[in-house]
Specification:
The protein contains twelve helices and no strands. It is mostly helical and 271 residues long.
């Protein structure tokens, strides 16, 4: 092969390297709302951090006391995911993600149809990939996609339509082909599917509103916000207690931001 023929490939690989190193999109996509992830400002909340740490330690002890317990395995993976955002450096985040990945893989070795194991494996892979920010991370993104799809095939309702929600966010925030799996068409389909499967879960509605706005479909965003406003009182009674306080802090902030943006885009008299 003549060396000149390698130039386009080299330039392509260089562009991928720069894109992965930049990070950002993956970190955003991995804030899979509704799965316990915290958003801007909440990582500094000491109450939420203490709760996440306590739950991680409890789940870790439970899992280590019986690594053959399938429920303990996936709950430990979930706890490591929830605690990950409070880690202070990439090494700690990678360690937490690695523990969750190991628990999920061990569970899948004996229970290949475990929905939670496929689901949290995908999320933990994403968290690990975000700490790497190199070409190896690209392969993890593909595995994430496969694992979320497997979870969706097995139980599309798991975690309030979590597989659809996560796939939609992944397709929305990832760069498009040939760099990665990003696709606005797929993102829209999966995010709308999440709303159809579980319209009463605020995060499904919020993701769709934010995505419509990002795609400059302001009319669709406004209509989706009206749906969210209509379900908001019922959601307040359905998702209650300490376990949901962190989610409500996130949802309320995002809803307020969406209301401000959409109100500012409407013609006078349409507010």
């Amino acid at each position: 092969m003549r060396w000149q023929l390698l130039i386009p490939k080299m330039e392509f690989l260089n562009s991928m390297t720069r894109w992965v190193a930049a990070g950002g999109w993956l970190a955003a996509a991995l804030h899979f709302a509704g799965a316990g992830k915290v958003w801007a400002g909440e990582t500094n909340n000491p109450v939420f951090a203490q709760r996440a740490q306590a739950e991680f330690q409890r789940a870790q002890a439970q899992y280590q006391s019986n690594t053959n317990d399938s429920t303990a395995a996936w709950q430990f993976a979930r706890a490591s995911f929830n605690f990950n955002d409070f880690a202070t450096n990439d090494a700690s985040r990678a360690d937490l993600a690695g523990q969750g990945i190991a628990a999920c893989r061990q569970l899948l070795a004996t229970e290949s149809n475990s929905v939670p194991a496929h689901y949290y494996l995908a999320i933990e892979l994403g968290l690990l990939a975000d700490t790497k920010r190199n070409l190896a991370a690209l392969k993890m993104v593909r595995e994430m996609e496969r694992e979320f799809k497997t979870a969706d095939d097995l139980d599309e309702h798991f975690d309030y339509a979590g597989p659809s929600r996560c796939l939609g966010l992944l397709y929305r925030d990832a760069p498009s082909w040939p760099l990665s799996v990003g696709s606005r068409h797929k993102a829209r389909d999966w995010l709308e599917q999440a709303v159809k499967l579980d319209p009463g879960y605020p995060d499904n509605q919020l993701n769709l509103i934010e995505s419509y706005w990002q795609w400059k479909d302001h009319e669709a965003a406004s209509n989706a916000l009206q749906q969210l406003d209509a379900l908001w009182p019922a959601a307040r009674t359905n998702f209650t207690g300490e376990a949901w306080e962190q989610d409500w802090a996130d949802w309320s902030t995002r809803r307020d931001a969406a209301q401000d943006k959409i109100a500012g885009s409407l013609p006078r008299g349409k507010h």
